[in-house]
Structures are given as structure tokens and as C-alpha cells.
Amino acid sequence: MLTLKNPELISVKDGRGVRTVGCDQMWYPREGHIPQGACGAAVASNLLAYFLRSRRKLLDQVDTKTEFIEFMKKVYPFFHPRAGGLMSDAFIEGIEAFGEEYDFTVSAERLKIPVMHSKRPSPEKAADFIRMSFEEDSPVAILSLSAGSERELENWHWVTMIEYDEGSHLAKVVNNCIVIRVDMVSWLSSSIMGGALVRLTDRSEE
Fold this sequence. Notes:
Blueprint: E1 2-3, E2 11-13, E3 19-21, H1 39-54, H2 65-75, H3 88-101, E4 107-113, H4 123-135, E5 140-144, E6 157-165, E7 170-175, E8 178-183, H5 184-190, E9 195-201
Antiparallel strand pairs: 1-6, 2-3, 4-9, 5-6, 5-9, 6-7, 7-8
């Protein structure tokens, strides 16, 4: 089982002291933001907050919901919804631009899931990519352009993978604070439009 080394760092304490898993795109205030289209920004917030917290490079304290929303607002300009949605290349550009803006080193890599099934990575290749992410202690962003037969996923949507079973290829995924189970083999084989997997890489020690 592939898991985060510090799973408590993906949680956020709400106003009642209850911890949620990750953030919700609807936490974005409507003034100056488009919450309905901010799934990419929310997932980027999950990945970047975990990256910074686990490596003790905090820009801000992001333990409570109020604090996390302030962090999300910093992230949003780099991932705001665009015409046609936020694609994986723009997501990667946003990650690296955010690091440059706030003076820390981070890069992102992706595994494309092309439209053509014959060009898609095998479940084993996807598992290799996911393993590298967890070995570097980073969640995995999933862009699902179409869910296919995987009912837990949505079309044109970003979610955050926080655990992966290499034997069953089942992933524990966070979708706006709700934890779901996704069969990656099912998604890879049935998604009509594919999508991408994205992971963060810490280049500061290279």
C-alpha cells in the first residue's frame, strides 16, 4: 500500500474542530473567484499545502479552515478556470509559477492519458508514476476529462489521490473533502477522453 508519510498534513480543521480531508472548491468566496470551476485550484492547494507543510517551508499557517482558505486565495490566480477548463499543462505551469512567486523550488511532472486507447499507459506504468509520487511524499492530482465507467469520478474534474494499492489498483481519492475509492484500471480502460496524472517533485536538493 502506497500512502503519504504524514497523512495528517492533508487534513484541515473546520470551525468546529472537526478535521476534513483536503479542501473543498466551494470554500472559495464568490467575490473574485469562480468556485464552481475551481476544482483545479483546490487540488493544487491540496498538493502545494502538503508539499510546504511536509517540508517545513510554510508560507502561512494552514491548519484551520479559515487559514486554508487564505492559502487557497493565494493559489487561485495561478489556476483560475479558463475557457475549456484547466488542462494539465496549465496546471503544471501554475505549480511552477507559484513556487517562483513565493520563492521555493518545486516542479511538476505528468503522465498523460491520451484520447486514443492504444496510446494510453498500462496500469503498471501508471502505478510506477504513482509510486514515484508517494516515494517523494506527495499526493497525486488526477484530471478526469471523462469518467467512463468509473462512477466515483466526474467529467472535466480534478481530484487528489492520497493512497494507492498496487495489488488491486484501487486508489483512495479526495473529491472536495469526500473520500472515494477509484478503480484505476477501470478508469484507464473506459474513459472516453482520458486526462492526466500529475505529481510534484522537490528539486531543491538536486
